[in-house]
Amino acid sequence: VAERGFNRPYSKVGTSTEFEVGDGGGWEVPPSKDPHLYNEWAQKNRFVVNDTLHFSYKKDSVLVVTNTEYDKCESPRPLFFDKDGDTTFLLDRPGLFYFMSGVSGHCERGQKMIVKVLDVESPPGHGHQSPDANPSGGHNKNKSGASQLMLMGFTSFPSLVLLLMIVRFVIMMN
């Protein structure tokens, strides 16, 4: 599903957020010194179902492809294709989305991105910078306590230590 017309870096619309891919730098081949630019950008953000990604580009295209096609930088039949220079893509389900440029050679030079989309029922923090956007799949009720803490955004050691100190203090007070 593609929509057109959004052109704002981060804006809230109801319960969804519109993200400008690359924080306004546009969808283009990243500099050779930074070939992971788009995946680093995606990992810094938390996406939930019904958020949108806006791609702004010239003489290029946006493809949504399978994991295998993403790894090969080749897609004879993409799941989604647009080349009008102003593409807004609706993240309509939880899971992983694989994006790449359809211009020959661009994907191989780093113009590709994996976006992990959380279910709407995911923990707070939506639309904010995330210390870790682990692309390992969706929510699993059988995850360990540590995994659940990571899903809640407690992925850095200092934040986990702080949480444990607070829990210990609360236990001592009771």
From TrEMBL:
CDD domains xrefs: OsENODL1_like
Feature: compositional bias, Polar residues: 131-142
Family membership noted in the UniProt record: Belongs to the early nodulin-like (ENODL) family.
Protein name: Phytocyanin domain-containing protein
Principal location listed in the UniProt entry: membrane
InterPro entries given in the database record: Cupredoxin, ENL_dom, Phytocyanin-like, Phytocyanin_dom
Region Disordered: start-end pairs: 121-142
Gene3D superfamilies registered for this protein in UniProt: Cupredoxins - blue copper proteins (2.60.40.420)
Listed transmembrane segments: 149-171
Lineage: Eukaryota, Viridiplantae, Streptophyta, Embryophyta, Tracheophyta
Membrane topology classification: Lipid-anchor; GPI-anchor
Record Pfam families: Cu_bind_like
Organism: Opuntia streptacantha
Protein's UniProt keywords contain DNA-binding: no
Keyword Transmembrane carried by entry: yes
One Gene Ontology CC term in the entry: side of membrane
Phytocyanin domain boundaries: 17-119
Entry's Gene Ontology molecular function annotations: electron transfer activity
Protein location: Cell membrane
